[in-house]
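Input record (one chain):
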Amino acid sequence: MIKRLLPRSARRLLGVKVKPEPPPYQLLDQPGQLGPLLDALDRVEEVALDTEADNMNCYRTKICLLQFLIEDQVYLVDALAPMKFDRLWEKLATKHLVMHGSDYDLRLLHDLCRFEAKSMFDTMLAAQLLNRQRVGLAALMEDYFGFIMSKESQRANWSRRPLTKKLLDYASLDVWHLPELRDLLTKELAKLSRLDWLDQQCRRQIESAQVGFPGNDEYAWRIGKSERLRGAGLGVLHAVWHWREQTAERLDTPPFKVCNNNLLIKLAHAAESGDSADAILGAIHLGRRHGRLIGSLASAVKRGLEADPKSLPRRSRNREHRPLSAAELSLQDKLKADRDSVAGKLNLDPTLIANRAQLAQIARTPAEIDAVLLPWQANLVRDLPAFHAAIAC
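The corresponding structure, as predicted from the sequence alone:
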């Protein structure tokens, strides 16, 4: 009890760590209950926001819970409840958001209702720009406040109802300390003159979220070591991969719970070896979980064996995917060495300045640097000796 009464600054200095107490919260899970939340949004310009989603028990990821901290009140909104959320999204789009690791949440919200944030402070991005070795929310809570956050609920089934008190307590803590954490990170960033860097990072994150999550393209079935397949194996892999997707969607379950990639590859390699459909299926133990699906799987294998491998989608080669030339590879290596040197002086993760893929793009076309990097990143790269030499050529 004495430890809990110590101020946070003292706990941090003394190395005392405690389990945080969940704040009071309102659970809104019935029609007509959004009124207090909507009224609270009208009174503020800033909102701390988090979401809990389920991608382990359904075919498409869905938002299950929304957590809001508005002034000193936490609102937990059951996103699966039969409520009309249009006014909520409309009002939220006019607020400055405080979030942690916002990329996933913003993409979820975009896919759900085409939501676009007005502006944002992401505490994870801020921690990265401060070169914190641990940037997860639980780690930052421990480092800054001496809190030990439970991780038991991270893999919980958030789509199951009713939500337990334990889960709701956990969810409320995800937003309760965000504004205070933001304030501490802001002070540290200001000392390093990196607040503008963070603003650029956050704006880029908002823009990136507007494409949502990438869906399966026509090449998504080319999994594992499919590049080694040339004949019947390609047709079977194409057929059974699509069978798995269709089955998963029909059962509303993740594809990996229908069967894993290893099984699909085994089927394809058996077909590549010239086995018949019966031999392919008979040589593989499907297990109890697949027993009821054996008929439709067998039909998929037969369709695959009958397919012409040459008719299957092939990736087209374009300029961005061609290998770098010897000169471009040399420039990339020099850029990387110079980047690492600058990052060391700034005490910054080098990949935050430019990652490997971005260095490759710059090595290929240095003049297009502004299309590849954010302004603060581009300014640092422009000062690299290797970049100067490349532009001078």
